[in-house]
Amino acid sequence: MDIYNDKLLEKVENILTGGSKKYHDKLKESNKLFVRDRLIMLFDNGTYEEDGRFANCVESDLPADGVVCAVGKIDGQTVCVMANDSTVKAGSWGKRTVEKIIRIQETAEKLQVPLLYLVDSAGARITDQLEMFPGRRGAGRIFHNQVKLSGMIPQICILFGPSAAGGAYIPAFCDIVIMVDKNASMYLGSPRMAEKVIGEKVSLEEMGGAKMHCTISGCGDVLAQTEQQAIAFAKSYLSYFGANFKQLPKGKESRLPIKGRTLEEIIPKNQNVPFDMYELIDQLIDQESFFEMKKLFAPELITGFARISGQTVGIVANQPKVKGGVLFVDSSDKAAKFIQLCDAYSIPLLFLADVPGFMIGTKVERAGIIRHGAKFISAMSSATVPKISVIIRKAYGAGLYAMCGPAFEPDICIALPTAQIAVMGPEAAVNAVYSNKIAEIKDVKERAKFIQEKIEEYKEEIDIYQLASELVVDEIIAPSELRATLSNRLHYYTTKQISLPSRKHPVYPV
Amino acid sequence: MVELRAQMAGTVFEVLVKEGQQVSAGQTVIIIESMKMEIPFEAETDGVVAKVNVSEGDFVNEDDVLITFG
């Protein structure tokens, strides 16, 4: 063997091995995979081309400078990947780590392909801060690039371990964050720092664990039980998207919905009695085609991708079973982000409304329910993809607006015969209009009779055939026909084009 | 001790369990009326009802403890 080759082999072997044995043992203890094993699992045939492999190779203890950047294929689609190696200085960022991440972002932009961030990093290498933190091609540039790429190419984060301090913004700027339960965490200051700086004693799991972020903060979208499952989720997510914003979402072969009760059986006749919206969704979509976003966060609103006769669609549905399907601060944020995501990548939107309105009361007013609701309405209103609104049962007040009511240019507003559209429900309306009169009636029975009469009158006024007669809703159909009409309409609406008003961008409510 | 807290403000419409009663996860234990909707609350785990903290007709705020399980 010639000496040149020997040297190369030795260097490569050192790089491919990653950090020292004790760090590999630590991975095993916490059920984590080595970064290169994750990549093998992620890419088709386990093959990929790596860039900047020799970064910092003159330092023997910093293989690849703690990050693997690669191009490969997932289900036939070329993608770019950045993956931290937590066996090398806990996956921390040095000067070359940052440069490699910036370059793979630039590559993804040039190739116009999705970019995945496999995050498992302790954050900045403090000892290298001058070189990697503040400058033009310092860590800030990574986030700047993420913002620039947002809406151009899908950006997906799988969080396998920590993403600390500044590094926590990588997931924050991605379209989706998949977190591995128990191992993933996201925080600006560690528990140790929290104790020193503000005197708070708290565990990592409680403050920034995967479960917390997927249920409470909303920073996580999907909670995975294992690394394998997290990688499978990422692949499944990508299957709904084109490679970039210019491509239409990928379709698949049509499949029948799973066997179950009919919509007529699922929807209760009494408007005030809850039902499970998941059961209804299942009867509209191709079986096993649902990919839910933020399932555990603000569950009173359901958001997810699905296929109807093979065509990709983004579903926004009220869940009457949780909090009566009432909209809150968090559900508004959840909807706004999901709608923006669908609109950016040409995924048609399907709204399934059964909503009593936005929550009222001191608590939510102080939390800014109005400005949060405005985000939801603004995102929905700005979306130019095909929008189909279906009024399943009630759609009251601004709830009708948020769920793409007639004023917001849905391509079609379909009502089921159980639909009820109004400023507010009959009981609330009668109380509002006749409160003085009701108070005047002393006899309890008389009062009840009066209220009942007025409720009946009100119901007639907001009768769905009355609204269809006035062309408020475009169509009323039997629940049994809903899937078929959605399937046809999604197909017809694929050529929808809307020219945007002349301006730079709206002033987004936040 | 596991506490079931109100997820939203409203009025207690119906309490479906009594103290000392065995409940299983997913069982509806109380119904709150809010925004003119009847909103069922389920037990999160199996257990025994240790204390019912509210009565029918009471106003409850978000995060108030409704039922304590032993």
Automatic annotation (TrEMBL), chain A:
Name of the protein described by the UniProt record: Acyl-CoA carboxylase subunit beta
The UniProt record lists the keyword Coiled coil: yes
Domain of life, source organism: Bacteria
InterPro entries found in the cross-reference section: AcCoA_carboxyl_beta, ClpP/crotonase-like_dom_sf, COA_CT_C, COA_CT_N, MCCB/AccD1-like
GO MF, one example: methylcrotonoyl-CoA carboxylase activity
Pfam families: Carboxyl_trans
Coiled coil segments of this chain: 434-468
GO cellular component, one term: methylcrotonoyl-CoA carboxylase complex
Annotated CoA carboxyltransferase C-terminal domain residues: 262-500
UniProt keyword terms in alphabetical order: Coiled coil
Domain CoA carboxyltransferase N-terminal: 1-253
One biological process term in Gene Ontology: L-leucine catabolic process
Keyword check for Coiled coil: yes
Automatic annotation (TrEMBL), chain B:
InterPro entries membership: Biotin_Carboxyl_Carrier/Decarb, Biotin_lipoyl, Single_hybrid_motif
TM spans (from-to): none
SUPFAM superfamilies, per the entry: Single hybrid motif
Domain called Lipoyl-binding: residue spans: 1-70
Lineage top rank: taxon: Bacteria
Keyword set, alphabetical order: Biotin
Protein's UniProt name: Acetyl-CoA carboxylase biotin carboxyl carrier protein subunit
